[in-house]
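Hello again,

I reread your note about wanting to compare the complex against the isolated chains. To keep things tidy I'm splitting this into two emails, and this first one only covers the full assembly. Below are the input lines as submitted, including protein chains and any nucleic acid or small-molecule components. They are followed by the predicted structure of everything together. The single-chain runs will come separately.
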Amino acid sequence: MAIANFAPQTVADAGTYVPPVAEYAFLLKEAFGTDVVARATGGALSADDAGDALEAAGEFAAEVFAPLDRVGDQVGAQLVDGGVRTPDGFKEAYKAFAEAGWVSASVSEEAGGDGLPGSVTAALSEFWNASNAAFALCPGLSHGAISALQKNGSAELRSSYLPKLVSGEWTGTMNLTEPQAGSDLGAVRTMARDNGDGSWAVSGQKIFITWGDHDVADNIVHLVLARTEGAPEGHRGLSLFLVPKFKLDANGAPGERNSVVTVGLEHKLGIHASPTCVLQFEDATGYLVGELHQGLIGMFVMMNEARVGIGVQGLGVADRAYQRAFAYAHTRLQGSVLGLPEGTPIAGHPDVRRLLVSMSSRISAMRAFSVLVGDVHDRAESDGTGALAELFVPILKSWLTEQAVHVSSDAVQVHGGMGFIEETGAAQHFRDSRILPIYEGTTAIQSNDLVGRKVLRDKGETVSQVFALIREHLAALTATGNDVAKRLAERTERAVAAAERATQALLGFGASPRDAFAVSVPFQELLATLVGGWMHATIVNAVLAHTEVSADDERRLLEADFYSAHHLARVHALAETVAAGEIG
Amino acid sequence: MAIANFAPQTVADAGTYVPPVAEYAFLLKEAFGTDVVARATGGALSADDAGDALEAAGEFAAEVFAPLDRVGDQVGAQLVDGGVRTPDGFKEAYKAFAEAGWVSASVSEEAGGDGLPGSVTAALSEFWNASNAAFALCPGLSHGAISALQKNGSAELRSSYLPKLVSGEWTGTMNLTEPQAGSDLGAVRTMARDNGDGSWAVSGQKIFITWGDHDVADNIVHLVLARTEGAPEGHRGLSLFLVPKFKLDANGAPGERNSVVTVGLEHKLGIHASPTCVLQFEDATGYLVGELHQGLIGMFVMMNEARVGIGVQGLGVADRAYQRAFAYAHTRLQGSVLGLPEGTPIAGHPDVRRLLVSMSSRISAMRAFSVLVGDVHDRAESDGTGALAELFVPILKSWLTEQAVHVSSDAVQVHGGMGFIEETGAAQHFRDSRILPIYEGTTAIQSNDLVGRKVLRDKGETVSQVFALIREHLAALTATGNDVAKRLAERTERAVAAAERATQALLGFGASPRDAFAVSVPFQELLATLVGGWMHATIVNAVLAHTEVSADDERRLLEADFYSAHHLARVHALAETVAAGEIG
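Full-complex prediction:
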């Protein structure tokens, strides 16, 4: 293959967001050997049908959300007279978003939404997050609240709150963290006292509450983790309460202000448009969601979805940063480019090209995995892929968020000195990205979940299924006779073998769990990196089934070849690290 | 070795800077098997003598520079009435710095300074940069100007400008970049017209001029790259001019304002206290430095020093970020720590411990290399280590600056959600760090220099000397019988072999230079990672010569063992990547 991708191309303006609609069409319809939308919906919907929704969503993201990303960063959310004021344009954009049906699009039919399959909502989520990561958090949190209510709320709570959340007229939040209770929710001190009338009085302080207050919707439905009197200590004493910002009047409309006060707003490194609130609850009226002392279970319903959502946010931020770097590199002229004609932009320099292909090869793999995770969740109940779905969540969350930091850093580097200047826009993504491997469970928490609950607990059975699934692709790749495919198969086979050794090493740490947890992050990196190779193998098999190789197909082959030479090779180093266990 | 280093310790307040004076004493006196200060000065100065200077410098850094780091970030340099105003306290701090002799301390005796050896000035430079990276750039640039003047300036220029620069009463700048001329200096358009009276009229616009204007000193000596009438196109037509902010009066004192105007100040991601100026020269009076059309040679004198300086800046930023994370992790309580008693701070969690040791193991290796590079430069003329010195510069600059980004990112991660809150302070280092792999030549430019001029040009001869130097340590390590030393020797031997394969692959790309330059960054990462193993081997050999193992020695052994299991293993992946050449 010629070194073609440096060539001057039609390039979007650096601030423009171009939603990867065609790539999703390929992924939904072909990459996994079947139309995953049709399979998930029993034929009720096809990938082509979904394509129309993606086209419309992409347009909305590019035209409404993306232009607000800069003002969101520069002005940010502000606390004015005890309430959060969002930057100019946010309120109108949110209303348009809800009215266009984009909140309900990703809600299950049971809960009153459109019931699009997970593989499609993954695409929508990428578009919202790529175009405006800070804004996308707002409807993202509503989805968590909707799921928690749908699953555990009483009929009365569901009928009072669900329709407005699903329509987007109201938004939802998750209230977990307190100053002394971050990753360790067992330390939560917020108290709920039974009012004896079916309601509870909730008191305490919650911090880091994303979109905890704002002016874009008419009511906010807080889901609050609290302890009740006489409840057990630790995790087992926590219950979940619904606390509305405005209590509902006799007609079910927002009425009297509840005693939830925004006492502070954090000054953050990034996602400035997302208000991160300190909320004070003083005998605020709340309603129990689910059983007493089962709050953490209710919360985990939200958290699992939120973790997938934040993973996809990582993909979105990475792609936006990449698009900016790509546009800059294809317009900026600097120096003679080795072996190429005068006038070649910097995208042709060997190392700029390396950075760009490195970014896009990771993004394409992560995007394919995001679709797969959505699809596996869609099928979890019908075809027994539930264990796979659970294994994939911590990998998706860790991998896509950590790579968001790396890719957005690479995007700054492509810009040279201009990348460090705020006006260029590349720095914003780098700043925004840095929260992603932290919130909704840090990379360490994800990796401990992966190692402890998803690998050690079943003695490696589920992860071995993954290795078997990967190997299924390799013979087919080799049989194509294509050089890229053959190299990819050979490198992936060696990577699977390294992953098997690492898994055996983990299982061998039985007597010393610190050894396993001291290398949980390297083990997760290893699996994530291997999954990237798997996704490229999947893509290459689909590409080589085409009778004609399109420009997109050439890019896909290039990305696969690059990924296996530059990223997949890391698996061998990580396997050695995992085998070492805790040092010292 | 027990898992000891999580234990509650005397911990500095998170904002405090603790200069690593004792570590430098070890490095200067013992780590390299000899007192490198005594060797470099022919016995005129010993490591113990240097220790007094380091103690005093560390105190100054901690007490004067460090407390200004936060206000520097928050208020930043501002453009007021056409001049740059530094944040409160900067002016006084700079005067105290100059009066204490810290500018002249790092200047050669020939140029009128104290002539401290490079191994010692490396330590000073780390202290200034760790305590206040934005501030440290100011005297750092003076050193470049001093070197350029000392080497190429006329007797008259030297006598008029050098003493004031050396004393720190005036400061220096480097004026290279223009909007169309960043990495490619051949595109410089600033013109100098001969006034016929020994002076030149310089006109043009320069951007990204660090400390290009300020209020901390009485004059600013700009060294400006410009083209003269009738000069050849490209690099060979550039000359170097000295352009003072204030022209000198008959007594040599700053007099009439020269026509250099600060027309803009950049809004940057980090190092806010460092004014990054757009300077407009309009027939500004300048003086030729060195020969006509030899400007780039004069500039390279400054650039080589500046590259070493920025590398060490990376080390400083990394260490400050690490110190903050270490302090937080040893005071923050969250969750039960696996296998350890209640009340153990988060530093005891397996993954927090992993992050902390990962950071410190890289910092210790980079610090040792910084001393070695200073020492090799000291000896370059006397014992023929010049080729080594040249090989090391791009490795030092790339490695220490890239790791500054990674380590400061890890430091944010250790803080969890608090790391994303600006008040915590961790985010500043992450922001500050991001310029380091860009300015003074990006990582790609360093890596191309490494591959093209330092490896391919001599057919791998110098780099093979490095491999031989590394191997010299390994037999001794194995002979100690110590487990850490044996593992380190075994892993380093395999790493050297991988580096040799990668070098052979590079040399084999003779006919297709794009293949070599497409993997120049991975090759540089490989060598840098290997050098880290070498530094730990050096340190472990010195430690095991001790009759008693101190707490510092235990930490050093732990870091060496960790580095070889977690970082050195990457060499194998990188060797595979290098061998692949350009993809596609």
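For quick reference: The longest strand of chain B covers residues 276-289.

B.
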